[in-house]
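From the methods appendix. Each design record in this collection lists the tokenized structure first, followed by the designed amino acid sequence. Records were kept in a plain field format so they could be parsed without special tools. The example shown here is representative of the layout used throughout.

RECORD:
FOLD TOKENS (239 positions):
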């Protein structure tokens, strides 16, 4: 088997009971002109047929795990990935057309970069709009979000950054993005809203706000601890 080239992209999609939206997520990846070399769906113990949705696509690899959480699913996908570049997507979100092209163009133009992020825009799912809440929590403007879905990263840089946290209280998504920020890796954000985040009634942030808030606080605390540890001690001289 020949060695994948420097532009070969592996896309990892973790899913747990996301059959309703998974097909749209996969299609948004495959419809990008800069087609990835592989799409890896990691079925994290789904009971709703998510794995069957993934296996219906000829160009998708699907692996199934006992339910262990999103961090473990992402790590399993990374372990299987063969591409020199790694990208991620949540199973209920979609990439905008041209997402991968825009990020790869920035990597080509600035070869010193080790990762490229993207802006996010939100859109309401049909089940969300039915409840009459369409405009209550959907942000109207693009924004930067602590989502692995926004990141395209060189595989060797990801190896230096380390695995996703598998602790159920770690807030693995935010922890990953904060570690990327704190690591000293060279990265930039591509212009335009390239990731579309679906707002629906089962978003984890809507169904478990207290747990998510606790996870975010823990991730932020770890980030502050890392930054304090990296700060050089100030020499005050002899007294």
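DESIGN:
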């Amino acid at each position: 088997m020949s060695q994948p080239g420097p532009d070969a992209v592996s896309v990892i999609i973790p899913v747990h009971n996301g059959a309703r939206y998974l097909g749209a997520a996969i299609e948004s990846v495959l419809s990008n002109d800069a087609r990835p070399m592989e799409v890896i769906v990691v079925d994290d113990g789904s009971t709703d047929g998510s794995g069957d949705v993934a296996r219906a696509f000829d160009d998708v690899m699907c692996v199934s795990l006992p339910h262990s959480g999103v961090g473990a699913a992402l790590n399993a996908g990374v372990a299987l990935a063969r591409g020199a570049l790694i990208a991620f997507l949540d199973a209920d979100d979609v990439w905008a057309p041209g997402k991968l092209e825009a990020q790869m163009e920035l990597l080509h133009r600035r070869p010193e970069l080790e990762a490229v992020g993207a802006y996010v825009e939100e859109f309401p799912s049909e089940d969300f709009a039915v409840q009459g809440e369409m405009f209550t929590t959907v942000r109207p403007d693009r924004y930067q979000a602590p989502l692995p879905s926004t990141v395209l990263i060189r595989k060797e840089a990801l190896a230096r950054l380390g695995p996703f946290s598998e602790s159920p209280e770690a807030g693995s998504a935010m922890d990953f993005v904060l570690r990327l920020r704190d690591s000293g890796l060279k990265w930039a954000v591509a212009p335009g809203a390239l990731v579309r985040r679906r707002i629906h009634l089962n978003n984890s942030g809507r169904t478990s706000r207290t747990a998510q808030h606790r996870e975010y606080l823990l991730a932020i605390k770890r980030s502050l601890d890392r930054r304090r540890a990296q700060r050089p001690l100030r020499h005050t001289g002899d007294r």
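APPENDIX NOTE: Strands lie at 9-15, 38-44, 60-65, 85-88, 94-95, 115-124, 152-154, 187-199.
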